[in-house]
Design a protein that fits this description.
Helices cover about 40% and strands about 15% of the residues. The chain has about 200 residues and is an alpha+beta fold. It comes from Chryseobacterium rhizosphaerae. It holds the Pfam family GrpB. This is GrpB family protein. InterPro entries: GrpB/CoaE (IPR007344), NT_sf (IPR043519).
Length: about 200
Amino acid sequence: MKITFEKYNPFWKKQFETIKNELKDSIGFLNPQIEHIGSTSVENLSAKPVIDIMIGVKNEEELDKIPPLLRGQDYVYYQKYNEEMPYRRFFIKLIDQPQNLGFPEIINAGDEIPEGIHDHKLRTAHIHAIPTSSEHWLRHIAFRDYLRTHPEVKDEYQQLKEYLSEKEWHDGNDYNEGKDPFIKREERKAVEWYLEHRK
């Protein structure tokens, strides 16, 4: 598959705000910190037109309160990733309820990923729930803010994404591996910069 890759669209900000408000309606009593991350959160950076959202909770115990609260909506819960990444709960938000698109609400460990669920035309957002005390929360926020304030790094990332978007990939995870060396290198710099400048 080729990754759908679009020029920056100001509408992505509005999409984020809409989804953020929906999430607040479902999980607001947890007092989550809800952040727009990833390429769609960086002005003038091209991206897959899927909004990356990070829900920050107080601790890992709160993570498992979220999946039941999103049941019966437009989300698929990838429970299968919990063992590999116990610090995170991952969901995709679809354009409709999963059962209306022929998908399960939960993908468990050992389940095959349903055919067609990788079609980015059917997704509106990727949701990552992570404790705000986690290093993973820090690196996502730092990398976003670093790209927003370092145009030369953003331009290098743009060129890499353009190059990778021309290739064929098995799925989105495969594509993400192509970006991994750049992201890991720049994330280290971003975290140092963020910790130094956020005070």
